[in-house]
Specification:
The complex is a heterodimer. In chain A, β8 and β9 form a beta hairpin. By secondary structure, chain A is an alpha+beta fold. Chain A folds into four domains: 84 residues; 218 residues, no CATH class; 310 residues, no CATH class; 211 residues, no CATH class. In chain A, strands 15, 16, 17, 18, 19, 20, 21, 22, 23, 24 and 25 form an eleven-stranded mixed β-sheet that branches. In chain A, strands 4, 5, 6, 7, 8, 9 and 10 form a seven-stranded mixed β-sheet that branches. In chain A, strands 1, 2, 3, 11 and 12 form a five-stranded antiparallel β-sheet that branches. Helix content of chain A is 52%, strand content 14%. Chain B is of the alpha+beta class. Chain B is built from four helices and three strands; from the N terminus they run αβααββα. In chain B, a hairpin with a 5-residue loop joins β2 and β3. Chain B is elongated. Classes of the chains: A alpha+beta, B alpha+beta. At the A-B interface, α1 and α3 of A face α2, α3, β2 and β3 of B.
């Protein structure tokens, strides 16, 4: 027998509901049986006590039976409860599905709203997880691996950086036994693979022989390096290739082992292939790993293992379980101080120290690296988007609950208990949340890769976009969202008074409920304002960084470098190649200027050597230096740097090796803060004679787009103080599209030195592009999230207004019947919506002002209180609100007074 | 009464008898016991305990269900009735049982003419 199911009505006729009832009922059943049998026997003529005995005998062991039956019943009860729960859950679900299916618009809006909100979070979590939380793939016991940083004094302040020189590794290995292993690795750099026209660039990282052993990375094919491969100073010419390189270039089969690779003109034998997804310690693209000593003589120069002027190595160490990292750090610090004492450098002294940090490179002792910080910020922003989405869904559900007050009241009158009712309402929000998260996962699936690849392209991302961690995270926020969005209507449903609701007509809405909805609207508007302000500020910052005057016309200046020394050209040949190269490039149509720079080259080398001004004490310069550069006349015109005082070098000065120099603003301000630099005497390089300062040039970009005001002194190309300096790069100014000229430049130069494997030609815009990424990431994502928030909030406002109008059809009808004009009615609606919007604007504006203090270090030359940004944010929100209210307002004017009054 | 003197019950037969008894409508345990006793002319004697065990077991298997009601002399008694599944099961078992008994009888009757 199946009862008619009214959701929530308890099966009143059921036997035993609690476990304690079971025993009592079994007792009663057996007692009834024994009594009945006794009575029957008495009726048949047996004496009473005899009859009782016989009944008992016929029954068998009563106590044992009771136990058996109770056990059976309890078991049955347990099963039934479970089924009951499942069935009521199924009923709830079916009921929720059916009632939602009747409102496709609601379903669509909530699914999209939640989908966008949850997707934003899933995407940002994916980024933050890989940037900041997850250790590099395939590394065994990553917690035990520490990255080593060095804290030195730079000027008056301590600087902490991870780059060091090889003798530090040797010293740490000798004197810091708390580390079970210490390994060094270089930044990946471009090496040529093959020769001539077929040559291509591959990313190569130099690593010490124990690198793979320390990380616990097992090659999928062949072997890892051994200490013997990395014999100092000349190691084995062996190579380990990445999984991707193996697939792409070596056919992806076992025969790859033993194949040879021609790297920088030197032959290496492939001995191993790393597992798929291994990208080294940082998430960088690396094709080939080589033992340091296999090519260090060529790449780092002879004597590389003893020299302390070559700074390229990063070191990681493994601290075994049970050894305190503090002890390892103390030993390393002692070893490091022992070394720097010998170096006698002003900025490294007895206070220098070694700092240990987690293996994850974005988490430095200086704090989280910029891309990590921006990602964290964006994750917070995506959280706000989710809050807006939840508020929106909550608002829709509250409206829905209000519409259904009578239905709920009827159910309660029928005896549906409140907890069951709440469960029904929660089931609805759960269903919406599930649909939303399904939508979110599909959005995230499509968009994550896009965000990762286009906004942070220099990071090698894990191959699976949605992994278990992202799923778990999404599930978590879905549940959170369901509780947030579902609780308000549920609480409201509970507080419904049966008698009141039954009496009330459907259009009557209690004031308290209206206030809750108003607060939700206000919150959405306020949060949207915050996001819009954030978006405006970050877009402004990006624009300021992009358009920053860096002394180089980024779009029209190309940097040309040739690996001539590496390939055995001597100084005379190199000078000749550059001399003829300048002539040839100058003749290419579209090339307007060509210049050559030695020593310090923008986005290339930085060379600091002696510079002194008689009578002026060497000032402390941020960024070190001063750096020395030797340039051909016309260099400043070529790169587009303005000479702000004085003049440029002349061709005659270059030819006669005249003792003149040009300083940049940083130098001028540091050495001659109160007087003019022009005409002053400066001793340049190894020169003991005065050079006259003939000009002051604007600071030129050296390494970093922002905060890079290094002091640089420029001399003519063959100034006596720059003896022996080889040409570092050619700088070429083009008038049109550089893309078309780059291959011509390559061809012309390649012809001058046919054995040179490649020529690198890059526009400065490309060289600095990676530095813009993080700004672009911030601005793009902030804007996208701001737009999503705005859309969600607008949809929320629209539905709230539509609901408001529909609830007041009667009132509007009466007003119109009493002579109200259409404009009056529209004003009524507009007033209603503008109340929430204006309050939200003010609240959000104040909150943004307060919150913007924390965003200051994410901004570049942008005030966190930029009034223009705030005004635009307010304007955008107001416009969106107006658009959202127009349709409901127009609908309100279409009310037919007679009809409206009659329906009541 | 000793077990050897009864017709011992073949496994599962008691379930069948109980369900058969319930085929006419809801009954309490005592009524079922009485019905089996009198209908079989006291040939089949089971301990009442076994009967109740069978009833509760059938209920657990959802072949019967129970509810409290009033007995003939107005006492609270637990009434059992067949569920839809129980009804189906009864029909199937009856058919099975009948075929089985017929087969056994055939062999027993031909017992005089020995197999060649």
């Amino acid at each position: 027998m199946r009862e008619v199911r009214i959701p929530g009505i308890r099966r009143v006729l059921r036997i035993s509901w609690s476990a304690s009832d079971v025993g009592r009922e079994v007792d009663e059943e057996i007692r009834f049986h024994l009594d009945a049998r006794t009575e029957e026997l008495v009726r048949l003529g047996a004496p009473t006590h005899d009859a009782r005995r016989r009944a008992l005998a016929e029954y068998g062991d009563v106590e044992e039976s009771k136990r058996e039956l109770a056990r059976l019943d309890r078991h049955r009860l347990g099963n039934e409860r479970q089924t009951e729960l499942l069935m009521s859950l199924r009923d709830d679900l079916r009921y929720a599905t059916r009632s939602l299916a009747r409102r496709p618009a609601l379903l669509l809006v909530t699914t999209i709203t939640l989908g966008l909100g949850i997707a934003a979070n899933a995407i940002m979590f994916g980024v933050v997880d890989q940037l900041l939380l997850r250790p590099p793939a395939h590394v065994t016991a990553p917690d035990g691996i520490k990255r080593i940083y060095y804290r030195d004094m730079d000027g008056a302040k301590a600087s902490i950086n991870p780059v060091t020189t090889y003798p530090v590794l040797t010293a740490l290995r000798a004197s810091a036994p708390a580390f079970s292993e210490l390994a060094a690795f270089s930044f990946p750099s471009d090496y040529s693979l093959g020769r001539g026209r077929e040559a291509q660039n591959v990313a190569v990282q130099l690593v010490s022989g124990n690198y793979f052993r320390l990380l616990g990375v097992r090659p999928v094919l062949g072997r890892g390096f051994t200490d013997d491969d990395d014999r100092v100073p000349d190691g084995e010419t062996v190579a380990i290739v990445s999984h991707g390189f193996w697939q792409r270039q070596l056919g992806g089969d076992a025969s790859a082992i033993g194949r040879t690779l021609l790297l920088q003109g030197k032959t290496f034998t492939v001995v191993g292939v790393t597992p798929r997804g291994f990208t080294g310690i940082d998430r960088q693209k690396i094709d080939v790993w080589l033992p340091i000593s296999s090519i260090a003589n060529e790449a780092l120069g002879p004597g590389w293992h003893n020299t302390t002027d070559n700074w390229w190595a990063q070191i990681v160490g493994r601290v075994p379980n049970g050894v305190a990292p503090e002890r390892a750090a103390a030993q390393a610090t002692a070893a490091y101080r022992g070394l720097v004492r010998e170096w006698k450098e002003s900025f490294r002294d007895s206070t220098s120290a070694v700092v240990l940090s987690p293996i994850i490179g974005t988490r430095t002792p200086n704090g989280i690296r910029r891309e990590g910080k921006v990602s964290l910020w964006l994750m917070g922003v995506s959280g706000i988007v989710l809050l807006i989405a939840c508020a929106n869904v909550a608002n829709l559900l509250v409206a829905r609950t209000l519409e259904r007050r009578r239905e709920i009241a009827v159910r309660m009158a029928l005896g549906v208990n409140r907890s069951r009712l709440v469960r029904m309402l929660l089931t609805e929000s759960a269903l919406l949340a599930i649909l939303g998260s399904a939508a979110a996962l599909s959005i995230a699936f499509g968009a994550s890769r896009l965000v990762q690849r286009t906004l942070l392209p220099n990071i090698v991302w894990s191959e699976s976009v949605l992994d278990a961690r992202v799923f778990t995270f999404t599930l978590g926020i879905t549940v959170l969202c369901m509780l947030l969005a579902g609780l308000a209507p549920a609480v409201q449903g509970m507080s419904t008074k049966v008698s009141e609701a039954l009496k009330a007509s459907s259009r009557q809405v209690a004031g308290g409920r209206g206030r809750l909805r108003f607060m939700l609207l206000l919150a959405q508007a306020a949060l949207s304002v915050i996001l819009l302000v954030g978006a405006g500020l970050s877009v402004r910052s990006l624009r300021n960084v992009v358009s920053r005057e860096v002394g180089i016309d980024r779009d029209h200046v190309l940097r040309v470098t040739m690996p001539l020394t590496r390939f055995g050209f001597d100084s005379l040949q190199i000078e000749e190649i550059y001399r003829r190269g300048v002539e040839r490039l100058g003749a290419i149509p579209g090339v307007t200027n060509v210049a050559v720079a030695r020593l310090t080259v923008p986005m290339g080398n930085a060379s600091a050597s002696q510079f002194s001004v008689p009578g002026v004490e060497r000032p402390t310069l941020s960024g070190g230096g001063p750096y020395n550069s030797a340039v051909t006349s016309g260099f400043f015109a070529t790169i587009g740097a303005a000479i702000i005082r004085g003049r440029d070098f002349t061709a005659a000065e270059e030819r006669t090796k005249a003792r003149v120099v040009i300083v940049n603003e940083a130098v001028a301000n540091a050495y001659w803060p109160t007087t003019s630099a022009l005409g002053q005497c400066a001793k340049f390089g190894g020169d003991s004679v005065c050079s006259e300062v003939i000009g002051v040039v604007r600071n030129v970009l050296q390494f970093s787009l922002i905060n890079d005001d290094r002091a640089i002194v420029y001399a003519p190309a063959h100034h006596p103080g720059t003896r022996g300096a080889r040409p570092g790069a050619m700088l070429v100014r083009v008038s049109g599209d550089p893309g078309a000229i780059i291959p011509v430049i390559r061809r012309e130069l390649q012809a001058l030195a046919p054995t040179m494997p490649f020529v690198q030609v890059k526009p400065y815009s490309e060289l600095v592009a990676p530095q813009l990424q993080v700004w672009r990431l911030g601005a793009t994502m902030f804007t996208v999230f701001g737009a999503i928030a705005l859309i969600i909030a607008a949809v929320g406002l629209y539905s709230a207004m539509a609901y408001w109008v529909s609830q007041r059809t009667h009132e509007i009808g009466i007003r119109m019947a009493l002579g109200a004009q259409r404009s009056d009615v529209v004003r009524l609606v507009a007033l209603q919506s503008s109340r929430a919007v204006v309050a939200g604007l003010m609240l959000g504006g104040v909150a943004a002002l307060v919150a913007s203090r924390w965003i200051t270090d994410m901004l570049y030359q942008t005030s966190p209180r930029d009034p223009a940004v705030y005004s635009i944010a307010a304007l955008v929100l107001t416009l969106a609100a107006a658009v959202a209210s127009i349709v409901p307002a127009r609908r309100s004017t279409a009310v037919d007074p007679i009809q409206a009054i009659r329906t009541e | 009464m000793k077990a050897e003197e009864d017709l011992g019950l073949v496994n599962g037969t008691l379930d069948l008898l109980v369900m058969r008894t319930l085929a006419w409508g809801p009954r309490h345990g005592f009524a079922i016991a009485r019905w089996i006793r009198t209908t079989s002319d006291e040939a089949i004697l089971v301990e009442d305990r076994a009967l109740y065990l069978a009833l509760h077991r059938l209920e657990e298997r959802r072949l019967v269900e129970s509810e409290w009601g009033l007995s003939e002399n107005n006492r609270r008694a637990r009434f059992y009735q067949l569920t839809r599944a129980g009804r189906k099961q009864l029909q199937a078992r009856e058919e099975h049982w009948t075929r089985y008994v017929e087969a056994v009888f055939k062999i027993l009757r031909s017992a005089d003419s020995r197999p060649a």
